[in-house]
Structure to design on (656 residues):
């Protein structure tokens, strides 16, 4: 049984636009199905606005899903009470992109790390102190630094504090939404190394959301590629990166600048920009930019199918 | 030589006192060459660009010489400088939305520097604007000239910025993170456009970026900056294949590489020192795995360690002695591998 099983999840936002207040519906997540195994990482990649963050938030029910099912350890969590959800959050945590915004500036690191323990009634004061000091050691902070405030730390340190906070309750699953996107590469690698270490040590599962293809490749076991609210390809990391099937995945990978000046490029340049999610194209939503598009693509919505063993893609021409 | 920068230093006032943001920067660019400037956040890349353009915050203290096409522009009058900017050199910024005027149409903004710098009449200017918009790959140029920036996507706005910068065919184009704010498929379009411009003009380009992938893709030669100083300079293939400075080595080792999965990445402990509190000696000393006693007291100068490869680090000796040593160690390595 997978740790997390998401089936046909939809997250639609209704917004009012213009003076007339016309309603528009943004299908931020539009029928996503995926699973995450225990101790493994599922990477979610895709360009801005494709619904990565909405998917993560929806799974944690930080926003109420419009439709679909989310099973955690086999138990349906869509529709459970707030009280039950609080219990579940112990096991499902989130790490955000911006370590500045997500840490309370008026609390010391010790208070920040202790807060989730207090909320969930874990340990007595002494036990909590031990737990926090153990955690801070893991993220490379000295004991004295625990009485400092977030602004006294660098971006990378703050992000590690964010990870430590998520780890405090010893969760099974961490949803990390662009956790290294605001960091310089030398610091980004510290955070990635920490995440890999913690995963090994605690058999953690990650849903790792990022627009950075090389970072996702580095940390993931399995990868889902999203385009306009839909998963267009999902498979083991090696399959997606070495033998991509979907035309969008192929273009995306070929667009990535490779940090090797001797690398010979064979680039597929896509025309145009991402269409607006509030007014997506008909049929296959990628047809406006797809180099392989035909007339049928404008009409048929391609289902996500197993094209090769364990390798799923949504395209009628591959 | 198209541009030569000699001993440029910049001090800015923050919290009432001056601190040195750039410290004794020297480099050059040949015609038709693309020079990359890399380094992590806050190391002074943007300030280097803005110093070249002399678009600095108030009360900035800029020292040293900037020689553009044999002419020292660091001491010319404001009026002359305005002539040079946009005409001989122009700049593209990271965020096209903040650098475009939201209240003016695309056409007006592209036309502006043509009015400033050329004697073209209205009709000729319109022709040139349309031609420029086409050249940067924008569709429906005729309609576009009457539209406003907010009606366009990020990629289109950046194309417009490029069109504006190219309007008077400058000899030097300075690009500060031109694709950082863009999605990867759109970034690929812009990089392709830049490569096209490179092929078709003899322009020198300064490409500022923190993305080593972008560097590898478009640059001929690279400068690595750390904490307001240049620490290494080499042709792009040499820099990636044979990095010398421990900072460059650390930077390259931290990048996740395609094909290597779940491997431990290299990383650089600690953080960049801030302008107000620069350590004496080598500024990288606190983070350097090879730090020695001398590093903490004496600042290493840039030295030539191989033809067209320079670095500022005490691990390497002046010129010939070291050159011999490295060739020898290469031969040794080759012998061992055979
Ligand atoms: N609360 C909301 N109300 C209305 N629309 C929303 C809301 N949250 C997200 N959206 C819209 O849903 C779409 C998907 O947004 P989302 O933030 O999930 O994308 P993303 O893939 O995380 O993008 P990025 O890479 O820029 O973070 C976007 O069009 C966004 O504007
Ligand atoms: N207006 C200003 N006044 C004082 N100091 C400034 C000002 N602007 C920038 N600085 C400082 O100058 C230094 C160099 O900044 P710069 O913007 O050149 O860095 P950068 O290499 O472009 O970084 P990034 O990759 O984040 O764009 C930084 O320490 C920064 O804090
Ligand atoms: S279904 Fe058609 S448009 Fe969509 S990805 Fe496949 S070929 Fe391209
Ligand atoms: S001079 Fe010394 S501290 Fe600086 S990079 Fe070289 S070895 Fe390291
Ligand atoms: Mg997001
Ligand atoms: Mg900058």
């Amino acid at each position: 049984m997978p740790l997390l099983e998401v089936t046909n999840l939809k997250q639609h936002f209704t917004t009012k636009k213009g003076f007339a207040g016309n309603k528009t519906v943004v299908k931020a997540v539009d029928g996503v199905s995926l699973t995450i195994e225990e101790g493994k990482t599922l990477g979610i990649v895709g360009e801005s606005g494709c619904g990565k963050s909405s998917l993560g938030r929806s799974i944690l029910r930080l926003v109420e899903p419009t439709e679909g099912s989310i099973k955690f350890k086999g138990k349906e969590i869509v529709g459970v009470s707030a009280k039950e959800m609080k219990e579940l959050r112990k096991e499902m945590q989130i790490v955000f992109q911006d370590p500045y915004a997500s840490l309370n500036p008026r609390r010391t690191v010790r208070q920040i790390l202790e807060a989730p323990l207090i909320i969930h009634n874990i340990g007595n004061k002494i036990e909590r102190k031990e737990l926090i000091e153990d955690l801070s050691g893991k993220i490379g902070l000295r004991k004295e630094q625990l009485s400092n405030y977030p602004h006294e730390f660098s971006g990378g340190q703050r992000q590690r504090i964010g990870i430590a906070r998520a780890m405090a309750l010893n969760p099974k699953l961490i949803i990390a939404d662009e956790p290294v996107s605001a960091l310089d590469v030398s610091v980004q690698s510290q955070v990635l190394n920490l995440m890999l270490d913690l995963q090994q040590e605690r058999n953690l599962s990650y849903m790792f959301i990022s627009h950075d293809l090389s970072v996702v490749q580095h940390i993931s076991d399995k990868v889902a590629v999203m385009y306009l609210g839909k998963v267009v390809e999902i498979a083991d990391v090696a399959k997606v990166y070495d033998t991509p099937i979907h035309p969008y995945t192929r273009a995306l990978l070929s667009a990535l600048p490779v940090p090797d000046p001797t690398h010979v490029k064979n680039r597929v340049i896509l025309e145009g920009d991402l269409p607006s999610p509030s007014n997506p194209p008909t049929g296959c939503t990628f047809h406006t930019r797809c180099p392989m598009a035909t007339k049928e693509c404008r009409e048929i919505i391609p289902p996500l199918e197993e094209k090769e063993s364990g390798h799923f893609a949504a395209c009628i021409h591959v | 030589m198209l541009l030569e920068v000699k001993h440029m230093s910049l001090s800015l006032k923050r919290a009432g006192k001056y601190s040195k943001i750039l410290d004794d920067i020297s480099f050059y660019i040949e015609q038709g060459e693309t020079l990359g400037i890399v380094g992590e956040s806050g190391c002074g890349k943007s300030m280097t660009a803005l110093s070249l353009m002399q678009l600095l915050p108030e009360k900035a203290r800029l020292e040293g010489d900037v020689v553009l096409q044999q002419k020292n522009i660091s001491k010319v009058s404001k009026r002359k400088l305005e002539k040079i900017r946009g005409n001989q050199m122009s700049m593209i910024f990271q965020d096209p939305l903040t650098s475009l005027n939201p209240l003016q149409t695309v056409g007006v903004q592209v036309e502006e520097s043509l009015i400033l710098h050329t004697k073209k009449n209205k009709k000729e200017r319109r022709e040139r604007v349309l031609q420029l918009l086409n050249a940067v790959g924008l569709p429906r140029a005729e309609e576009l000239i009457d539209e406003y920036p907010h009606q366009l996507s990020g990629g289109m706005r950046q194309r417009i910025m490029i069109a504006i910068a190219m309007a008077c065919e400058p000899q030097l184009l300075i690009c500060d993170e031109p694709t950082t704010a863009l999605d990867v498929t759109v970034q690929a379009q812009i990089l392709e456009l830049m490569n096209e411009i490179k092929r078709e003009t003899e322009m020198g380009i300064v490409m500022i970026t923190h993305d080593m992938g972008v560097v590898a893709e478009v640059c001929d030669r690279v400068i690595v900056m750390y904490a307001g100083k240049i620490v290494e300079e080499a042709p792009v293939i040499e820099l990636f294949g044979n990095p010398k400075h421990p900072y460059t080595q650390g930077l390259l080792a931290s990048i996740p590489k395609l094909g290597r999965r779940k491997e431990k990445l290299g990383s650089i402990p600690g953080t960049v020192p801030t302008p107000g509190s620069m350590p004496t000696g080598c500024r990288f000393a606190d983070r350097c795995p090879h730090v020695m006693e001398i590093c903490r007291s004496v600042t290493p100068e840039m030295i030539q360690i191989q033809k067209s490869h320079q670095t500022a680090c005490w691990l390497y000796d002046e010129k010939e002695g070291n050159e011999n040593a490295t060739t020898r160690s290469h031969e040794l390595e080759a012998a061992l591998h055979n």
The two ends of chain B are 42 Å apart (CA to CA). Chain B has two domains: 3-226, 229-256+265-337. Residues 323-338 of chain B have pLDDT under 50 and may be disordered.
